[in-house]
Specification:
Elements (H helix, E strand, L loop, with lengths): L1 H34 L9 H11 L8 H19 L18 H21 L6 H30 L4 H7 L8 H4 L1 H15 L23 H26 L6 H21 L5 H8 L2 H13 L1
Helix pairs in contact: 1-9, 1-10, 2-9, 3-4, 3-9, 4-5, 5-8, 5-11, 5-12, 6-9, 8-10, 8-12, 9-10
């Protein structure tokens, strides 16, 4: 019965995260539209889009891996969620977190991206190879400063457990990693800009430059799966950074507020700066973010 109750809370948490992700995406698109002098979409538009996409059927035939691409992608997002503690001190909303969950979550981050690349590689679109090479090149350089930041805080707190890292930050805002390890926080927050994929790092889809990447061929229910994963992934990645650097959350209200501002950081940068070229993006992550990550390692080694 304990397993059944735990699974019910896991599904409840996933339901909350999915719907908050859909609402947050609508809010961010609304903000971007207002900055550009437009009214923007209605707040309920993401739900309408999902219902429409899941009601459609695809008549295109490709290889098996093409259809498994969205499955791998959503498995990466849901996998991060399953092992991510959401609410500090809650036995039910800690999901299936364990002693080394931080390492597993880092693997899941790359798992979805790699699966999506394998799926897009079997598509018939001539620009698929461009999107794959851009996505993997950029994500690899994103992982370098991010991994250094994670190693730094693992050494700082002597643990690879996200719950224990959150516990070490309790007792006041000055105990947050933001203040106790600012260089690791800076490296991670700059890496976050690339992980969320807004301008200037939206190189895979590259609107107005190449056709919009996977959505060109992944439509109907396949695109619905990708949109669902995006809603989950944006929230759960924001929760990861909240747990590692901003003291975690003791309740759902705190989680929503903190995840909103963490996600808003990437949207704010996106509406201010134009898109990089791929070589500019790779070089950028290997400069300032990498330097901050190296300094964080040196301080705590």
């Amino acid at each position: 019965m304990d397993i059944v109750i735990r699974l019910l809370y896991v599904f409840l948490g996933l339901f909350i995260v999915l719907n908050w992700g859909l609402l947050m995406s609508a809010i961010m698109r609304k903000i971007g539209a207002r900055v550009a002098g437009r009214y923007g979409i209605p707040y309920y538009q993401p739900w309408i889009d999902l219902i429409k996409l899941y009601s459609l059927r695809d008549s295109i035939t490709h290889g098996v891996m093409f259809y498994l691409g969205p499955v791998f992608r959503v498995s990466g997002g849901v996998g991060i969620f399953l092992f991510m503690p959401l609410i500090f001190g809650s036995s039910y909303f800690s999901n299936f977190s364990f002693a080394g969950d931080l390492v597993l979550i880092m693997y899941f981050q790359f798992f979805g991206m790699l699966g999506m690349a394998l799926g897009a590689g079997e598509g018939g679109h001539p620009y698929s190879a461009i999107g794959i090479s851009r996505g993997l090149s950029q994500f690899t350089t994103i992982e370098v400063p991010m991994t250094l930041a994670v190693i730094s805080i693992a050494v700082q707190y002597h643990t690879l457990s996200i719950s224990e890292i959150v516990a070490a930050q309790q007792g006041g805002i000055m105990n947050w990693t933001l203040f106790t390890n600012p260089f690791a926080t800076a490296a991670a927050m700059l890496s976050l800009l690339g992980a969320f994929g807004h301008s200037p790092f939206n190189l895979v889809k590259a609107p107005n430059e190449i056709p919009i990447g996977p959505p060109t061929e992944y439509h109907s229910a396949f695109l619905g799966v990708l949109r669902t994963n995006a809603a989950i992934l944006h929230v759960i990645e924001a929760v990861l950074f909240m747990n590692l650097f901003f003291g975690g959350a003791g309740n759902w209200f705190e989680l929503i507020i903190k995840s909103f501002f963490i996600y808003f950081w990437s949207v704010f940068v996106g509406v201010v700066f134009p898109r990089f070229r791929i070589e500019q993006s790779v070089q950028w992550f290997l400069k300032i973010p990498l330097l901050f990550g190296v300094i964080a390692i040196i301080i705590f080694m």
